[in-house]
């Protein structure tokens, strides 16, 4: 294996499922560094084989379950690695990550088992008089900034008329790890039984009430996670009918709308994104294939594209044949009685996606494979993300421990800066090399210096905390011993038998003192 070219090993590994890759991390340091690198994670996510074969159904019910889409035979229980008070469901999946609607909210990669607990978010807006509120969440990925974002919309309605009065919108960035308020959502959220918000290609899509037609959910508002602007997408004119439940979904990369009435369910698919004329009626299904008033959620196509997997009213799964217009129920062992299903692709996406961590993994990969300047420029994403590293005075900015993660004192920040500058000097980099932005080797050395300084700073912080904790334990034990002597033997210097200042000529007291010590 060491004689195989780097490109061949990388090409083989990126075709494997996540479970195998997690095991192969233990084969060698070079494999571990490669699998953990941002470049490999992105290649693995975009691999065509992954999108068709290595997909699972993530089932939310009384617990969390995983079902292999290829087999569809058994539901396997997934034990969340985090604590939660309650779970209201699972939001949409994006690059293998799901938003768990728990208290608190959690972003969770069910395959790598990494998770991030979101900080609490409260509504800042003062509630209007005689109003009630409801909160909705959406989750998606912004490819421009390489950031996962959670959108929170809190709206207020009148208690009696239920007319929309006001709303507040906040967005959480995984990169900044904080909530911030943005332009408020100027539309009323619909009262629908089905799904009414989905994510597709960096855009959150939400069904809203048509302002010209009260309580008619006939408009899709597309919220771009990068520009944070809303754009309307019109539905087909055929489905603007009162008394119909309209829900929104994504079917294998295409936006789709499900219209449910008492007698039938019609599914429309937008073949060309944003073009109203591209809406196509995919299927019409009615009883007895489904029960009346069933809310149907399309999940995925079969491998040959002739069938569609449907989740009917969160109670059963059906394969619907598009050519023969027949339906076959899928029996999956271990499914809960009521469940919510979401298609989830396997991924190695890391939720700790700080830039320093990504750069460090790229450095380790390049070092492990001994790549030259040209290979390094082509095999990693360093060129697009290390411009600021070329100036030594900006080193402090790239230390995650210098901006308040470990502490906020200026002494600690200065100490980190000193460590990094000394590490840079030991690398033998002069001013000209530091200012030169064209050499990947220079950037590699500089980032290695930052990584080493960060590791030293972390070790010092851990040692200091450990020493402080040990000192506290020793002090507590000393106090406990002191209290034991005071309460049990009458205190230091007392005349009681066995005391340290007692009368040693008293043979009876001396004997009992020795006997007590032997016990």
List keywords for this structure.
SCF_F-box_component, 11 helices, four-stranded antiparallel sheet, 29% strand, globular, disordered C terminus, alpha+beta, 519 residues, Neuraminidase
Write the layout of secondary structure elements.
Elements: H1 6-13, H2 18-24, H3 29-36, H4 38-46, H5 48-52, E1 55-60, E2 64-68, E3 75-77, E4 87-94, E5 97-102, E6 106-109, E7 115-117, E8 131-142, E9 147-158, E10 164-173, E11 178-181, E12 197-200, E13 203-209, E14 217-224, E15 230-234, E16 245-251, E17 254-260, E18 265-270, E19 279-285, E20 296-301, E21 307-312, E22 316-321, E23 326-330, E24 340-345, H6 355-369, H7 373-379, H8 410-426, H9 431-435, H10 440-488, H11 507-518
Antiparallel strand pairs: 1-2, 1-24, 2-3, 4-5, 5-6, 6-7, 8-9, 9-10, 10-11, 12-13, 13-14, 14-15, 16-17, 17-18, 18-19, 20-21, 21-22, 22-23
Region (Disordered): 492-519
Protein name: F-box domain-containing protein
Domain F-box: 1-43
Strand coverage percent = 25-35%
Distance between the ends = 65 Å
> What is the CATH fold-level name of the domain at 54-345?
Neuraminidase
The CATH homologous superfamily of the domain at 54-345 is called Kelch-type beta propeller
**Outline:** globular
**Largest sheet features:** 4 strands, antiparallel
CATH class of the domain at 54-345: Mainly Beta
Question: How does the helix and strand content classify structurally?
Answer: alpha+beta
The tally of helices reads: 11
Level-2 CATH architecture of the domain at 54-345: 6 Propeller
**How many β-strands, per DSSP?**
24
With strands numbered from the N-terminus, the spatial order across the biggest sheet is: 3-2-1-24
**Rg value:** 31 Å
**Low-confidence stretches at least 5 residues in length (pLDDT < 50)?**
353-369, 373-415, 434-438, 490-519
Query: Please, what is the oligomeric state?
Result: single chain
